[in-house]
Amino acid sequence: MASILRRPQNVARSSRQLIEAASLSQTLARRPATIPRPLYAYARSRQYATQKPDGKQNAGEVDKKPGAAPKGMENLYSQSPMSPGGQPPDPNKKPEDGSGTLPGRTQLSPQEEKAMDDIFALVKKGMPASMTQDIDKALARIKKEGMPEELRDTIKECRDEGMSPARAAKLWRLTTQMARHTVESEMKEKQKEDEQPKQQTSDAPGPGTQGKGKKKGSKTDENMKMPEIRLDLSNFLVSAFVAYLLYRLVVPTENSREITWQEFRNTFLDKGLVDKLVVVNGNRVRVHLHRDSVASMYPESPAAQAGFHYYFSIGSVEAFERRMDDAQAELVIPSTERIPISYHEEGGWFNTVLAFGPTLLFIGAIFYMSRRAGGGAGGGGGGGIFGMGRSRAKKFNQETDIKVKFADVAGMDEAKLEIQEFVSFLKEPSVYQKLGAKIPRGAILSGPPGTGKTLLAKATAGESGVPFFSVSGSEFVEMFVGVGPSRVRDLFANARKNTPCIIFIDEIDAIGKARGKQSFGGGNDERESTLNQILTEMDGFNTQEQVVVLAGTNRADVLDKALMRPGRFDRHITIDRPTMEGRKQIFGVHLGNVVSHEDMDHLKGRLSSLTPGFSGADIANVVNEAALVAARESSDSVTMIHFERAIERVIGGLEKKSLVLTPEEKKTIAYHEAGHAICGWYFQWADPLLKVSIIPRGSGALGYAQYLPGGGGDLVLMNMKQMMDRMAMTLGGRVSEELHFDTVTSGASDDFNKVTRTATAMVTKWGMSAKIGYIYYPDGSESQEAQLQKPFSEHTAQLVDSEVKRIVDEAHLQCKQLLTEKKKEVGIVAEELLEKEVLTRDDLVRLLGRRPWEDKGEFSKYFGGGAMPGGPTKPGPNGEPEPPAGGNLPPPLGGQSEPAPSLYQGFEELGRRWRA
Ligand SMILES: Nc1ncnc2c1ncn2[C@@H]1O[C@H](COP(=O)(O)OP(=O)(O)OP(=O)(O)O)[C@@H](O)[C@H]1O
Hints:
Number of domains: 5
CATH class of the largest domain: Mainly Alpha
Helix content: 40-55%
Keywords: ATP-binding, Hydrolase, Membrane, Metal-binding, Metalloprotease, Mitochondrion, Nucleotide-binding, Protease, Transmembrane, Transmembrane helix, Zinc
Shape: elongated
GO cellular component, one term: m-AAA complex
Region (Disordered): 44-116, 182-223, 859-903
CATH architecture of the largest domain: Up-down Bundle
Mean pLDDT: 71
Low-confidence stretches: 1-99, 201-231, 374-386, 865-916
Strand order of the largest sheet: 8-10-11-12-9-13
CATH topology of the largest domain: Methane Monooxygenase Hydroxylase, Chain G, domain 1
Distance between the termini: 99 Å
Largest sheet: 6 strands, mixed
Subcellular location: Mitochondrion membrane
Number of helices: 33
Number of strands: 17
Bound molecules: adenosine-5'-triphosphate
Radius of gyration: 48 Å
């Protein structure tokens, strides 16, 4: 009753129907139909609402026992998803605590309560205990006070008719309101509870002023805390409610049950309980019942719950309509009172989201790209669409970011001197300007990788204390046309805003390649226009603008000539691999970062002798590796042994302990290496030997002999004698195999490669063959033309071949003579190697006696004895020591295009395919 009174429109509807029922009663009585009509149900519902349910009058046969399942409906009730889990809520029953549902709200059904419990339990996971207690209380309050009817109606609307933006907004508003209301009432109650004991305390006799002061303070604290708790909790509740609503919307089957046509007909249609039918998506029919009638007749039925529906499936809409017509005709329902059927398409909001998915994805992708593209140093003008054309240059702040000074750049004194001029220009431009000198625009730093080009550019910025824009050439290259030039413009625009400053373009060859040479299949327009833009920008500086452009490259030879002309990159600074002295200084810089108790001077000298051809980056790596090796051994300082291991590791890779060799293979390797070692020991011009090993390494070498090219010093020139001795020494492995075994192996292929390359260079480049003469023939790596066509005639080609063969054969003969003579020594060294796996120079001195030739350079200073002091040198024709081979001097070594030094630096590897 109470609920009907609360809804005036219900009262009005019921009284109208009663009047209609009264006027129709005569007709009904005369009808033969046994089925009560919907109006009958309404009338009964009013009766139950006003009378006690145990009243016997007018109950009718079927409904004699209220709450019991009617005939045909037992099955539905006993298996109802709403029925398990205890009794359905009794609307008349007051809550135990005495407070009922609030006005405008309805009690939650047990299933709804359970669903909410589940969702709250899920969201509560991982929350602090204090918070979960508050949430439990709030949840209990919601259960106690019920859910706003408006909210429930909106949920129903969403389920029945689909989600719309207006409904979503309404849901959000109602949910938020409810959550806030719950939290506020909870807080008020808490406040009341807290105030009660305080009142008691203040009423109780206490220590006067002290007590008062304390009370005041605590109240203020509380007031301060409250909004914080409220916000958290209400946010949480809103989230939980939204989750709950979505759950209820997405899983409507929780509140529905599938029935058959027969069940529908017998249980609902025949009994006049059907209000309307909704055909959903043309294949299912949702049955809307007269809830009040169902609730009155069958209070236990889940169909009495709001939001619960029965469904049945249909084959086709036409067949269903025909069946309904037949059924209603059988029931003699006049056409004016037939059950309305509506049609509805569902799955709505989810399908809508799906339909919009690609569009949303596209918008998201564009948004992401625009954010990403906008992440550069930016600030400059024409960023292009979504900032794609903005420069990606990183700007380093001179005060905070660039700590590098010239002192950190060791070696390369000439390069430093050259670049220091830029520093003084940036610091004091007036000195230059007043004399009418034009300021250099930029410098190209070229050299092999890791030689410190970037470091030098940074040090220039660090010393001059100006902003430093660093960008890599490849960052100008994008798949979009026009982005490269646009980025160049942006970079220079930024730089002009920050004058004085330095721009550093690393790997400039990515964009600065000579324009005609870039590719065979036509030019690369994008790259060319980027280069053109750089040329234009560099021209566009006026001499007052203090922007210095430094560029780094490993391939200065491929750069466009226009880039290198005066007025653009005025200075060309070549930074080569460091010399012995340079390596010492670089070791000095990096050794400062590790803990070592070795004598530093000796350590630096020895390490730099051991690392010919290493770049600055290699040296930094060696020092770091040594510290790692020491740490692995739990050593408290890094010692010489650790450094040597690190060098071996950097050159040859890790020891390959897992590789298992057969005894025969080991023996072959030992004799092969012993052959190299004996040659290195007895040939006068061979490089001093440091170590022989037959431990396989990660780089594919099964063994190696380590020499010190140039005796640890800087090898600038090599004469023919040195070359022949080196070649003979390189063939020592194979010759030893020939002399000690009845067959040979494939292990010497790498040696042959080196020997052939040296011999070819002697013939075609260094003018060391009388038959070819003083002619230089470039090879394929030097020019593209040479790749396609040999630079010499067929006749010359045959001559080159025969000359190369002659030189190699001579080296082989020289080696064979020595090793035949020293066959016994080879055996001794090989057997010792088999036993110890690694032999040092001291071992060789022990086995073979001192080397008959004096060691050159700084070798003896850092590597001790081994050579006969002032040992024999071959006398010249007049008894004086023979001078180095003159006349046929090869060109200076050390330049990166020279193959010779790299052939002998480091290890003599046995080749990767020893076992092939
Ligand atoms: N002269 C040097 N003094 C001290 N450290 C050096 C020197 N040269 C190189 N290094 C070390 O090597 C590292 C790499 O050097 P850098 O990046 O400057 O080489 P790069 O020549 O620019 O190489 P790439 O050509 O490959 O760009 C430096 O960070 C530094 O630790």
